[in-house]
Every structure is written in structure tokens, then in C-alpha cells.
Automatic annotation (TrEMBL):
The record marks 187 as: Plays an important role in maintaining the position of the catalytic nucleophile. Substrate binds at residues 123, 193, 260. It comes from the Bacteria. Residues 31-365 form the GH26 domain. Gene3D superfamilies: Glycosidases. One of its GO terms (biological process) is substituted mannan metabolic process. It comes from Flavobacterium crocinum. The active site is at 188 (proton donor), 296 (nucleophile). It is found in: Secreted. This is Mannan endo-1,4-beta-mannosidase.
Length: 376
């Protein structure tokens, strides 16, 4: 009888504190990274963080102005999640790489010290051919097979990962702690526009490269402040299709999705389809005890004045989704039309303030102690 009571007590603890079951794949992750991972899970049960790509580097009509973001100009707060990119960490001169690393280092540390979250995309310049990160017929090589273990460019790939690892270990705050980052490599891999895309890459090669990348960074190079995100585009309609190139539970911390097509791109909306896909990743997160997030979305130029509340917020609040954050794409500094977050005077500005004011959405000002203690 006593043994049964003990077992029941343990079961009760596990059920009532279910978020304890969520665990990172890196067992040596820093305390701050562990706290962030834990707290993102807690937040996702009741709220969602709002993010903006390149929010602090530049915005609509400006660049490199300390402390500025278009989101802050409208709401008074930076976004809770700030997107950066490792695109210039390879395929550039040593001096260009050095300059980019210095700028991003300050960005990441400042965001961490303010209490915000950094997520990293990687528009990875093709290491085996010209053509940059996009696939260009007649120029680009199908290079995933070349950078996997045993491939002719594998050693070069290891050098590139060393550059990323050096950066990850350099983002130290004033108190000496490392700034955690959500690292999202090879995104939108189910499309064909990047050289790592589905039609250019065998499934087995993609999985091999993903597994090597994660293992090499954390186990060989000693990076322990990354949360690893897996994010295809929206080219799936079932859990089985979503997991077609999944590298396994030991190599992923977060299920993501990039989806512009269902949320108004070219004037086309299919919110039912978009919600179904978000349900798939949310349910996967719960089932596999991992985070889930809407890793990229947005409406270019935001011509729909009520897009924030009538489209995005309504979707995010539907069907008990549990998503850690939603991130919209960048605001170009020179283009009059390429922007995804409002700025003062933009037609969706007032609706964005309503989105900001809704208790469901968290911006940077709403984040408290996400690195220092575990939230309830």
C-alpha cells in the first residue's frame, strides 16, 4: 500500500507540473538557456511572444541607430523576439565577417541584457558554388550531399560551423553569462528556392547534415547556449508530411513553420489551412515534449488595416494553440514596400497597437526574469 501511495504521489507531481517534462536536447546547456527553454513552454500555455526579424539593425527608412526599432516607435517596446541572421558568416572576406560578427554580438548581448530573446536564421551561402543562398539554375550545386560526413566539402563545412561556434561562445553579457539563442538552420527546406531545398537534396542527406550540425556544435565545439529549431515552409498538410525530413527527437528542440502563403500573400487567404498547420506543430510539441513556434509569417506592406487582430491574433487564439512566439519578417531600410511590421503612420499602426495591448501578446516590456528563474 505504501509503495502504491508513493507512486501515485509521483504521478500527481508529474501531471501537475507537466512542463518539467520538457527538456532540451543539450544536457550541458547553460542555466540561462535552460531557464529560457522552460519559460517559453510556460508562456506558450497562456500567451505568445511577438518577434520581428532584423528589428534592431534597421527599419523603414533608417539603419544602425542604437536603441531604435520600428516596433518600439509604434508601441514603446521592442519586440520580445529579435531575429538576426548568420548569412554573412561565410562566403565573405575575413574583414566583412569580422565586422558582421561585431555588430551582431552587440545586438545579441543588448537584447539578452534587456530581457529579450534572440532567434537566428541562417541564409547559408552555398559553400560549394556561386549563387549565394538561393538556388540558381546553371550556377548552384546541390551541396547538402557535399557537406555531409564523407563529402568533398565536409571539412570546409566544419570550418564554417567553427565560425558559428566561436560567435556563440563570444556573446557574453557584463555578468559573464552567455546569451541564449534559438538557432534555426536550413529553414523552409521543403521548398525549392534555397540550395538545401527538397528537390535539390535527398532526404537521407538532409537528415545526415542536420544531425551532424547539431552534434558537432554541442558535443565537439562545446556550444551550450543554443535551442535548435526545425522549421519547414507550409508545404505540408499532415503530421506525417511535416516529419518527412525530421532528424529525430535527439536533434530538435522546437517545431516551427514559416507560412506567408495562407496569411494573405498576393491577396490570398486560407486561414483554415494555416490554422490546421499550426495545430500540427502545436500538437507535435505537446506530444514530443518540445516547444512550438510560428517561426516566420507576415503580410508584405500590410495593406490590410486590421491584419493584426482580424487575421493573425484571431488565428493565434484559436483551438488552444500552444506556441512560444510568432515572428514577422523584416522592414527593409530602402524599399518603400518591403516591410512586415508597421511604423508610425503606416495604415495598420492603430490595429497593431490593439494587437500590442491585447493581454495575450507579449512584447519585450512584458518579459520578466525569463533567464534568471523558472516561471510558474
Amino acid at each position: 500500500m505504501k509503495m502504491i501511495m508513493i507512486k501515485n504521489a509521483l504521478l500527481f507531481v508529474c501531471i501537475t507540473a507537466g512542463h518539467f517534462l520538457f527538456a532540451q536536447i543539450d544536457k550541458k546547456a547553460t542555466k540561462e538557456t535552460n531557464n529560457l527553454y522552460y519559460n517559453l513552454n510556460v508562456i506558450s500555455k497562456r500567451n505568445i511572444l511577438f518577434g520581428h526579424q532584423h528589428a534592431l539593425e534597421y527599419g523603414h527608412g533608417w539603419s544602425n541607430e542604437s536603441g531604435r526599432s520600428d516596433v518600439k516607435s509604434v508601441t514603446g517596446s521592442h519586440p520580445a523576439v529579435v531575429g538576426i541572421d548568420f548569412s554573412d558568416f561565410s562566403g565573405r572576406s575575413d574583414e566583412q565577417i569580422k565586422q558582421e560578427k561585431e555588430a551582431l554580438r552587440k545586438n545579441v548581448i543588448d537584447t539578452y541584457e534587456r530581457g529579450g530573446v534572440t532567434t537566428v536564421s541562417w541564409h547559408f551561402n552555398n559553400p560549394a558554388s556561386e549563387g549565394g543562398f538561393y538556388w540558381k539554375d546553371g550556377i548552384s550545386k546541390a551541396s547538402i550531399a557535399l557537406i555531409k560526413p564523407g563529402g568533398s566539402y565536409h571539412e570546409k563545412y566544419k570550418e564554417i560551423l567553427k565560425t558559428i561556434a566561436d560567435f556563440a561562445k563570444s556573446v557574453k553579457a557584463k555578468d559573464g553569462t552567455l546569451s541564449p539563442m534559438i538557432f534555426r538552420p536550413f529553414h523552409e527546406f521543403d521548398g525549392d528556392w534555397f540550395w538545401w531545398g527538397k528537390s535539390h537534396t535527398a532526404r537521407e542527406d538532409f537528415i545526415a547534415v542536420w544531425q551532424f550540425t547539431v552534434s558537432y556544435l554541442k558535443d565537439t565545439l562545446g556550444v551550450h547556449n543554443f535551442i535548435y529549431a526545425f522549421s519547414p515552409d507550409n508545404q505540408f498538410n499532415s503530421e506525417q508530411e511535416y516529419l518527412e525530413r525530421y532528424p529525430g527527437d535527439k536533434f530538435v528542440d522546437l517545431f516551427g513553420m514559416d507560412d506567408y502563403g495562407d496569411f494573405g500573400r498576393d491577396g490570398k487567404y486560407d486561414l483554415e489551412a494555416g490554422l490546421k498547420k499550426l495545430e500540427i506543430i502545436s500538437n507535435l510539441g505537446q506530444k514530443k515534449k518540445k516547444l512550438a513556434a510560428f517561426t516566420e509569417t507576415g503580410l508584405e506592406s500590410i495593406p490590410n488595416e486590421k491584419w493584426w487582430t482580424d487575421v493573425l491574433l484571431k488565428t493565434l487564439k484559436s483551438n488552444d494553440l500552444k506556441l512560444a512566439y510568432v515572428l514577422v519578417w523584416r522592414n527593409d531600410s530602402t524599399s518603400p514596400t518591403h516591410f512586415y511590421a508597421p511604423f508610425p503612420g503606416q495604415v495598420s499602426e492603430k490595429d497593431f497597437i490593439r494587437f500590442y495591448d491585447d493581454p495575450f501578446t507579449f512584447f519585450e516590456k512584458d518579459l520578466k526574469e525569463i533567464y534568471n528563474k523558472k516561471l510558474n
